[in-house]
Each structure stands twice: as structure tokens, then as C-alpha cells.
Design brief:
The structure is a single chain. By secondary structure, the chain is an alpha+beta fold. Among the domains are: about 100 residues; about 140 residues, Heat Shock Protein 90 (2-Layer Sandwich). The protein is about 55% helix and about 15% strand. It has a 5-stranded antiparallel β-sheet. A 5-stranded mixed β-sheet has the order 7-9-10-12-11. The longest helix has about 60 residues. It is rod-shaped and about 150 Å long.
């Protein structure tokens, strides 16, 4: 669970980024549509108001022109105009429909904006026009704004609105991201508690949850812990009883076989020796099971002199080599059981010599001179040990050795060597395989 939280956090962050972008685009589009309509209305209102402001002065100007002989003046450079964004015209319409520009602003086109007298709003090529009749019905005032100018105004307003929307979206994203991180903190703390939670201990409990919605998770984990502890206790009790029940008769069988070897004819001794060897191997397996299935809380790591430990192990037909002064920290009984299984595997596969070394602190390497394994077989064994999928992949000896290493918080590795078979017992949590 602790490993999954960063992945959950990354996916949630990506989702928030995508959501923020989509939300910003959607809102910006909605703003654009609303702003476009509002800006059009505002600009139309401006055209209409400008026409009202210009109608009085231009009516007087047109009357003055009539009094001076009706001459048609050119564009009036200093005539009243709202701004450079607009153009205006006073158009005289003859009875037969001919349109003549009487007065105009410098930005107005030379030809009349409308061929026929038209009041109100209209769109002509390149212009948005508002027409207003002057006092003389034969003259029309046209106030116009270019389409290009209107688009520019719309884009300016839309850009400003979009920037504001995106800024709000960014703030919302940052807030949602901080909120999501805050909401995931109880799960992170729960993962930290689970990392040290001991399911073997039936009395272990996670306690009350930080959030109400996490209480069912706590209750489910506590229930699972209780069931696992109960099941494990039953299995350990059965294994311990079975091992105890087997150890005594096996010891008796070994004693009887030793007597039989001394008293039997020479031709039967090889067969009896094979039986005694098999009985000895079974005794070592029973010893390993008996020590392994103790409660993990009873593991007692201590500094161990390897030479002294190996000297007490019943090894026949296998020479052990090691440097002087090798020391590891481990449970003596469990480590002895692991070494017995490794030595037994070496003997069964034809090895006559093993070499013990400590390449790193609390790492014990055992290398025999047997035939070893090819690369593919070694890789399959290592995968089975790493994933603890022992069935059909590993023998009982390697499985028990791996379980003993894991009882110390480590694991069993099978490094490649030039000759023979090598096994490394990592006897500390920092060396465990993840």
C-alpha cells in the first residue's frame, strides 16, 4: 500500500491537471460566446449614441452649406468625430435614388455606405453601420465601425476574460492539488502503520481511524490480522507437535541402525548406511521445521562464530572451508537449520566440499563444488524464492533456508558462480529483496 500511494498521487495529479485544462477551456469558450454577444451589443449602443451626438452639429453644418449656395464640401478634417475607431457620413439622396456624400469623417469611405436611405443597424462589406435621418428627410447620417475593429475589440475582451478564467483555473488546480494531498495523508499514515503492523500478533490492532470513512478499512484489517494470527498459530502448533513426534522415533531409528551396521555382515552394510543417511536427512528436516515454526517474536539474533557453529553440525562426507574469525548476527538454531539444509543439498548433488564466506556484513555465502545449475534453472529458482512461489519450483531445503532468512528480515539469493552452486543468506532487513 505504501508503494501504491505515490502512484495514486501521480494519477490524481494528472487527473486534476486534465480537469483544470478542460474546465478552463470550457469556461473560456462560454466566456467567449457571452462576451462576443455583449461586446456586439455594447459597440452597437456606442454607434447609436455616437449618431445621436453627431446628428445635431451635422444638421447645422449641412444647413450652413445650403445657405452658402449648396456647394458640396470635401471631408471636414475638424468635424466632430467620437474617435478614430469610428467613421461617419452625411449622405444626400436625390429623388431618383442617387446617393451623394455631403459630409464625412476622414476615415469614412469615399462612396456612400448605403445606396438607399436606411435607418437602424446594418452590415455592409467591411462595416457595421447605424443610420439616422437628419432634419431634412433627404439626408441620412451613417455612423460606422469596421468589422476588423469590432473583431479586435472582441478578441481583446475575450483574451482578458480568458486570462482571468485561466488564472482562476490555476488557483483552483493548486487548491485541489493541495486538498488532494491533504486528503491522502491519512492513507499515507495508515500505510506507515501497516509497515510496522505485525499480523502474527493476535492482539495487534490498528486502533481508531483518523477519518470516519477509513474505519471500515481498519476493522477489515484488524479482522484479517486476527484470522491470520489464528491460522498461523494452528499451523505452527501442528508443525511443532509433528516435529516433536517425529524427532524421538527418528533418533531411535538412527541408534538402531548404528547398532545394525556394527553387527550385520559386510555385504549388507552399504544398504544400511544408505538407510541411515536418509534417516539423518529426515532428522535434519525435522529439526529445521521445529526451529523455524517458532513464533517470529522468539527469534534471538546474536553474534555467532561460524567455525564454532559448523563444528557442532552433524556433517558426514562434506568438508567445510572458511576463513578464521567469521562472525554473523543471527538466531543460532535457525542458522544451524539453514546450514544443515544447504549442506544436505550439496551432498545430494554430489558435492564434497563447501566454502563459507561473509562478503558483506550479515551476509553468509555458501559455495559448493558440485555440478551447479545452468543460467535458466538458476533464474527460475531465484524467481520462485523472490516471489515465494515454492511449490513445484524449489526443494524443501531451499524453501526452508529462504524462510529462515526471511525470519531474520532478509532473503535467500542464488548468485552466479563460475563453478558449483552458491547460496547467500541475507540476514538483515536492509538486504531483503523488494
Amino acid at each position: 500500500m505504501k508503494r501504491r500511494l505515490p502512484s495514486i498521487r501521480k494519477r490524481l495529479t494528472r487527473a486534476l491537471v486534465v480537469w483544470s485544462i478542460l474546465w478552463g477551456v470550457a469556461v473560456s469558450a462560454a466566456v467567449w460566446l457571452a462576451v462576443r454577444q455583449e461586446v456586439d451589443e455594447l459597440l452597437d449602443d456606442t454607434l447609436q449614441a455616437s449618431a445621436g451626438v453627431l446628428s445635431g452639429p451635422l444638421t447645422n453644418q449641412a444647413g450652413a452649406n445650403q445657405e452658402t449656395g449648396g456647394q458640396t464640401p470635401g471631408p471636414i478634417a475638424h468635424s466632430p468625430a467620437p474617435s478614430g475607431r469610428f467613421a461617419w457620413q452625411v449622405v444626400q439622396y436625390a429623388p431618383h435614388g442617387q446617393a451623394r456624400v455631403v459630409l464625412s469623417a476622414p476615415l469614412a469611405p469615399a462612396s456612400a455606405l448605403r445606396d438607399t436611405p436606411s435607418s437602424g443597424f446594418a452590415d455592409v462589406p467591411g462595416w457595421r453601420v447605424f443610420g439616422l435621418p437628419l432634419a431634412n428627410d433627404s439626408r441620412m447620417l451613417y455612423v460606422a465601425q469596421s468589422h476588423e475593429e469590432r473583431r479586435e475589440a472582441q478578441l481583446d475582451v475575450a483574451f482578458s476574460a480568458s486570462m482571468a478564467t485561466l488564472a482562476i483555473a490555476l488557483l483552483a488546480h493548486l487548491w485541489l492539488r493541495a486538498r488532494a494531498r491533504h486528503e491522502l495523508q491519512p492513507l499515507e499514515r495508515l500505510a506507515q502503520r501497516l509497515a510496522t503492523h505485525d499480523p502474527v500478533n493476535a492482539s495487534a490492532t490498528l486502533g481508531s481511524a483518523e477519518r470516519t470513512e477509513l474505519q471500515p478499512v481498519h476493522a477489515a484489517i484488524d479482522g484479517l490480522t486476527e484470522r491470520l494470527a489464528h491460522r498461523l498459530a494452528q499451523e505452527r502448533a501442528f508443525t511443532a507437535h509433528a516435529a516433536h513426534a517425529l524427532r524421538t522415533p527418528l533418533a531411535g531409528i538412527d541408534a538402531q541402525l548404528a547398532v545394525a551396521l556394527r553387527e550385520c555382515p559386510p555385504q549388507l552394510q552399504p544398504r544400511l548406511q544408505r538407510v541411515r543417511t536418509a534417516a539423518g536427512r529426515l532428522q535434519r528436516v525435522v529439526t529445521a521445521l521445529l526451529t523455524l515454526f517458532r513464533s517470529a517474536s522468539e527469534t534471538r539474533p546474536q553474534p555467532l562464530d561460524l567455525a564454532a557453529l559448523v563444528a557442532r553440525l552433524p556433517i558426514e562426507g562434506l568438508a567445510c572451508e572458511m576463513a578464521d574469525g567469521l562472525v554473523v548476527t543471527a538466531d543460532a538454531d535457525l542458522l544451524a537449520a539453514a546450514l544443515l539444509n544447504l549442506f544436505d543439498n550439496a551432498l545430494r548433488h554430489g558435492a564434497t566440499r563447501v566454502h563459507l564466506s561473509t562478503p558483506r556484513a550479515n551476509v553468509l555465502r555458501v559455495v559448493d563444488d558440485g555440478p551447479g545449475l545452468n543460467h535458466e534453472r538458476r533464474a527460475r529458482l531465484q524467481s520462485a524464492l523472490t516471489t515465494q512461489t515454492y511449490e513445484g519450483q524449489t526443494g524443501l531445503g531451499l524453501m526452508l533456508t529462504d524462510l529462515i532468512a526471511r525470519a531474520h528480515g532478509g532473503a535467500l539469493l542464488l548468485p552466479e558462480v563460475d563453478q558449483g552452486f552458491a547460496a547467500e543468506l541475507h540476514l538483515a532487513p536492509e538486504h531483503a529483496i523488494t
